[in-house]
UniProtKB/TrEMBL annotation:
Protein name (record): Aconitate hydratase A
InterPro entries on file: Acnase/IPM_dHydase_lsu_aba_1/3, Acoase/IPM_deHydtase_lsu_aba, Aconitase/3IPM_dehydase_swvl, Aconitase/IPM_isomerase, Aconitase_4Fe-4S_BS, Aconitase_4Fe-4S_dom, Aconitase_dom2, Aconitase_mito-like
Organism: Flavobacterium polysaccharolyticum
Pathway: Carbohydrate metabolism; tricarboxylic acid cycle; isocitrate from oxaloacetate: step 2/2
NCBIfam families, alphabetized: aconitase_mito, PRK07229.1
GO molecular function terms attached to this record: aconitate hydratase activity
Cofactor: [4Fe-4S] cluster
UniProt KW Lyase keyword: yes
Top-rank taxon: Bacteria
Length: 755
């Protein structure tokens, strides 16, 4: 069954006219990215050329997707918007709040008990406002979107940074904060700076041990975690066409790890096969009618250097399997170089765990290829040296791989089959012994490997690689094992060399499932009651943030000067803190506790300028708030990298932080700060970061003249009374300044709804 088929047909019905108009206005052939962008303009057909990396543009996305951890805050905000029903197709997916520990059955039962209040809230809100609801255990949001909702040429937004996964089906799917989602759910336009374009030409063909995962691991190594910021990555070439749809999804998924706005591929036969296999023949018929509009114009791929701002070419025939990490997903090491790299850097060689799954690599093909390695080990009598766990991407995948014997193959090796959910990928893993803080190595097929992300242990060295390589490394128990050249000893002391992995792109007998976990919303939700207990520690109704008083911010204290990498995990940790994602006061107790204080190189230990005592970050900030003293956070490059979680913006706002001043921002986090009515600022001279001292008081000298394109002047008052002024930049346009003035974007939406 194809969900929302009439909406999809409507998109295709206007696509040719809109793309043709855009091509005429732009005056040249168009990339796929440009076709999708110009066909989704809020005002309809293009009437002007938009400049990449410069112009803010209003778009009309086709749909919205939310996962349970971020949906709580998004829906709490939507309840303030005064709407009776969402304006575009929207879904909520319960995948983040399930702790991996003993196995799927018991872990899901525990989650349904411990998080019942939250799941019931999400179910009732979805039922009331016309939102499709996917129950706990149904699967991971991005895999379910790929299986049911993604379609070539569409545009969607989602409250998770890995929404970009849907690019594997030719969409422009973009991760956003909850406030952005509320805009679209409320029937308003969605604003995005027109992105730059990075083209990745894939020649040759994947073979042997090399997988789609290795493409994005290589791209991440080339571009780094911020190299894609402000850009859409468009993949093309013979190598792209030869790749499976879910393989394309894997590549697009980890585009979030290079900071890209999103990534995508042109419509091709692999997408057709996948759509048919997932019961969406109607989508194929509709897409085929406009197929030439669902990929770039031929001239673009023939001469890509003329149409992309940056061009990368990768020969898949020469590409090696990669193992990226530790602690950052862009540190790439070809498998042939791992032995020397590990030795040179002192990385623990022994692999303790191998983990396969997450939204990145949890498809049928992923599981089948990894299982082919496991089957070889079992057949040859090789006992695995590491523990092993898998998370199927959806109940449909779990049911199908169980039917086809793939789960049984994994279980022969003692594999733990966890719930169809995110689990260890987002820190929802009760790993035995992690609390000891021992230095160790794990390998996984996830997308992120920041310090403490998987198990909370800062000494866990996590490496990202393909599912088949995870299987090989876990079986060998060694990080420096190269399955292309090395052999293993079986239980009889015999040498065994593993053959290259193999697995079907799609199940030969088709997908199957008994209960997919979908709950359709009520046709009329007006009578549905949403109850939030005032004594709940999991859910808290929101109060509007205060509007700006129109005056300069003065007497602000430096809260923390963050040193080095400061991701949204550092600003608002996941793991056990996920349980408070619907309670702003409680979740704020994790604000910036993972950030490194530049003045003592410690986490969660900063100077309280009121007492001179070093205390946890939230404690100090609550003291400033109680005293009515504003504060400022200072950070390094790519501040807010990682997840789309808007809690990383809402917590500082709630506790009284007025501005975040950094060398550079990750895109989603900068937008989230703006939406919540905060000042997101960058140093005009990044070396001014060094001028910030621990006891500084900060004054804004010209905030009363806040205007688009006009830098602001800040005065630093040091403890010796010496004063320095510095210039800071911002990217606010007039409407975004309106969010700041009103106190938040939501305040404006609510006011419009009451007008």
């Amino acid at each position: 069954m194809a969900f929302d088929i009439e909406m999809i047909k409507k998109v295709y019905a206007s696509m040719a006219e809109r793309v043709d108009a855009a091509r005429e206005i732009v005056g040249r052939p168009l990339t796929l990215t440009e076709k999708i962008l110009y066909s989704h303009l809020w005002d309809g057909k293009a009437t002007k050329v938009y400049h990449r990396g410069a112009d803010y543009v209003d778009f009309a996305p086709d749909r919205v997707a939310c996962q349970d951890a971020t949906a709580q805050m998004a829906l709490l905000q939507f309840m303030h918007a005064g709407k009776k029903r969402v304006a575009v197709p929207t879904t909520v997916h319960c995948d983040h709040l399930i702790l991996a520990k003993n196995g799927a059955k018991s872990d899901l039962a525990v989650a349904n008990t411990q998080s019942k209040e939250v799941f019931d809230f999400l179910s009732s809100v979805s039922n009331k406002y016309g939102i499709g609801f996917w129950k706990p255990g149904s699967g991971i949001i991005h895999q379910i979107v790929l299986e049911n909702y993604a379609f070539p040429g569409g545009m969607m937004i989602g409250t998770d940074s890995h929404t970009v996964n849907a690019g594997g089906l030719g969409m422009l799917a973009i991760g956003v904060g909850g406030a952005d989602a509320v805009d679209v759910m409320s029937g308003m336009s969605w604003e995005l700076k027109f992105p730059k374009l990075i083209g990745v030409k894939l020649t040759g063909k994947l073979s042997g041990w090399t997988a789609p995962k290795d493409v994005i691991l290589k791209v991440a190594d080339i571009l780094t975690v911020k190299g894609g910021t402000g850009a859409v990555v468009e993949y093309f070439g013979e190598g792209a066409i030869a790749m499976s749809c879910t393989g394309k999804g894997t590549i697009c998924n980890m585009g979030a790890e290079i900071g890209a706005t999103t990534s995508t591929f042109g419509y091709d036969d692999a997408m057709r096969r996948y759509l048919v296999a997932t019961g969406r023949q109607e989508v194929v018929a509709a897409a085929d009618a406009v197929a030439s509009y669902l990929t770039a114009d031929p001239e673009v791929y023939a001469n890509p250097e003329q149409y992309f701002d940056q061009l990368i070419e990768i020969n898949l025939s020469d590409l090696e399997p990669h193992i990226n990490g530790p602690f950052t997903p862009d540190r790439g090491t070809p498998v042939s170089k791992m032995k020397e790299e590990a030795a040179a850097n002192g990385w623990p060689i022994k692999v303790e765990w191998g983990l396969i799954g997450s939204c990145t690599n949890s498809s049928y093909e992923d599981m089948a290829r990894a299982a082919s390695i496991v089957e070889q080990a079992v057949t040859h009598g090789i006992t695995p040296k590491a523990e092993f766990g898998i998370n199927p991407g959806s109940e449909q995948i779990r049911y199908t791989i169980e039917r086809d014997g793939i789960i049984a193959t994994f279980e022969k090796m003692g594999t733990k089959v966890f719930t169809n959910a995110c689990g260890p990928c987002i820190g929802q893993w009760d790993r035995a012994g992690a609390d000891k803080g021992e230095k160790n190595t794990i390998v996984h097929s996830f997308n992120r490997n920041f310090s403490k992300r998987a198990d909370g242990n800062p000494n866990t060295h996590a490496f990202v690689t393909s599912p088949e390589m995870v299987a090989a490394l876990a079986i060998s128990g060694r990080l420096d094992f190269n399955p292309l050249t090395d052999s293993l000893l079986n239980d009889n002391g015999e040498e065994v060399k593993l053959n290259a992995p193999f697995g079907d792109e799609l199940p030969k007998r088709g997908f199957d499932v008994e209960e997919d976990g979908f709950q359709a919303p009520a046709a009329d939700g007006s009578s549905v009651q949403i109850l939030v207990s005032p004594t709940s520690d999991r859910l808290q109704l929101l109060a509007p943030f205060e509007a700006w008083d129109g005056k300069n911010i003065t007497g602000a204290k430096l809260l923390i000067k963050a040193f080095g990498k400061c991701t949204t995990d550092h600003i608002s940790m996941a793991g056990p803190w996920l349980r408070f994602r619907g309670h702003l006061d409680n979740i704020s107790n994790n604000m910036l506790i993972g950030a490194v204080n530049a003045f003592n190189q410690k986490t969660n230990e900063i100077k309280n300028q009121l007492t001179g005592v070093y205390e946890p970050v939230p404690t100090v900030q609550r003291a400033y708030k109680a005293a009515g003293i504003p504060s400022i956070v200072v950070g390094d490059h790519n501040y807010g990298e990682g997840s789309s979680r808007e809690h990383a913006a809402m917590e500082p706002r709630f506790l009284g932080v007025k501005a975040v001043l950094v060398k550079s921002f990750a895109r989603i986090h900068e937008t989230n700060l703006k939406k919540q009515g905060m000042l997101a600022l960058t140093f005009a001279n990044e070396f001014d970061y060094d001028k910030i001292q621990e006891d500084d008081t900060i004054n804004f000298l010209d905030l009363t003249e806040f205007a688009a394109g006009k830098p602001l002047t800040i005065e630093l008052v040091h403890s010796n009374e010496a004063r320095e002024t510095i210039l800071v930049n911002h990217t606010y346009n007039e409407s975004q300044i309106g969010w700041f003035v009103a106190g938040s974007a939501l305040n404006l939406i609510a006011a419009a709804g009451q007008a």
